[in-house]
Amino acid sequence: MREILVLGAGMVGISSALALQERGHSVTVVDRRGPGLETSYGNAGIIQSEAAEPYAIPYAAATLFRYAIGRTNDIIYNIPGLLRSTPALWPYFLASAPGRHARISQTYAKLTARSTHDHAPLIAAAGADDLVRRSGFYQFYRTPETFDAAAADADRLKKIYGVASTLLDTKALKTEEPALKTDIAGAVFWTSPWTVSDPGALTQAYAALFEARGGRIVKADVTTPMRENGSWRIENAGEYLTAEHLVVALGPWSPEYLKPLGYRIPMVRKRGYHGHFEMTEPLNRPLMDAANGVVLSNMRQGLRITTGAELTGPVAPANLVQLERGVAGARELVDIGAPIENSTWFGHRPCLPDMLPLVGSAPQHEGLWFNFGHGHQGFTLGPTTGSILADMIDGREDNNFALLKPENRRLRCRG
Ligand SMILES: Cc1cc2nc3c(=O)[nH]c(=O)nc-3n(C[C@H](O)[C@H](O)[C@H](O)COP(=O)(O)OP(=O)(O)OC[C@H]3O[C@@H](n4cnc5c(N)ncnc54)[C@H](O)[C@@H]3O)c2cc1C
């Protein structure tokens, strides 16, 4: 049994803690706010077993031009945000080249394919079944050209990775979703993903399970980690928590935290927003409106509309233009009532340039472990990379996931 400190109580940190606890270790989780209150709260709640390929930067010149002149709503940017992201965006662009992206996807597809399987025992043990729908989601298209391209891509994913989907025309989609009030060109119905009606509550249910099994969660804002006499030491209000192993699972805040130890880890922090709205006729499954880059999901809080990505500074004020455009587009499709809250949530997808989460031992520090950088699918992948990390700490290696390890990455993560 080892003493292990896990920093971060998002889906990734809590799932890592559960996996380590299951293997017999004594685990303490540290978070400045509490479980599931940041990125793992505000996302679209889809456990994306269909996401075989991570989001690449498109190589098509026409698409890049549309991004550059601001003609898209799925990605927007401002100049300071773009400049700040450039050191990570350039290697991200290089990793998006078709050949390299295909190699990265070989590993990525193995992660997402097991995601629902890895969540299943935790959902059952946490008694969180009421939060989970095992019935997929739709990605829909307004024009025949975009739908035909999406249908061809869904077929490609089925052939390469075995990702299940069916195609729906307007009539079929309206039968499934009576709330839909307009005709569309068609939808790809991804049948295997699960969707969650309150992602923060699922993370909290996992945290409660961890505590019920004897784990400890401490509220503390951690600063520079210290190593003394073979142990890691975290200061908490004048007291110290010490452990042989320290796992950094601080999501978008991880690179900043590791800087004092000498690690320079480039990350593109893709900001996304959500708002909650009243809706008289609920949707049965989430709808992804590809043209506007938004997802409409029925949540416990109301209809949640989440946006695509904004490249901006981490503390820049909220810019509601993407959400407003997305909501306007969504109103063409379904009747949407008044906003439920006055304030709008935003958070940042922690994306590493090679689109894979960073999981494994820190190159220069014994007993220091990384588990962050899950980008667009961290809510999906928490239990999966938590289990892979716990195996690594126990000295068990799975060659299928060798590409996740720091020593096999082209990231500049040297101490
Ligand atoms: C709009 C949007 C929609 C998304 N939709 C989906 C989706 O449908 N499916 C999916 O799989 N993923 C989705 N994602 C991505 C997903 O939400 C993230 O990848 C995931 O939540 C990251 O989890 P995490 O545990 O790494 O980080 P977080 O959940 O952010 O957890 C990090 C924790 O670290 C703590 N922390 C930070 N600094 C300190 C400090 N100094 N001291 C102590 N504690 C600290 C924070 O309080 C926080 O609790 C979406 C993201 C966004 C923004």
TrEMBL record:
Protein species of origin: Martelella mangrovi
Matches recorded under SUPFAM superfamilies: FAD/NAD(P)-binding domain
UniProt key word Zinc: no
GO molecular function: oxidoreductase activity
InterPro entries, A to Z: FAD-dep_OxRdtase, FAD/NAD-bd_sf
Gene3D superfamilies: D-Amino Acid Oxidase, subunit A, domain 2 (3.30.9.10), FAD/NAD(P)-binding domain (3.50.50.60)
Keywords per UniProt: Oxidoreductase
Pfam families: DAO
Chain ranges of the FAD dependent oxidoreductase domain: 4-392
Tree of life domain: Bacteria
EC numbers on record: 1.4.99.-
Name listed for the protein in its UniProt record: D-amino-acid dehydrogenase
PANTHER family with a match to the protein in the record: GLYCINE OXIDASE, SARCOSINE DEHYDROGENASE-RELATED
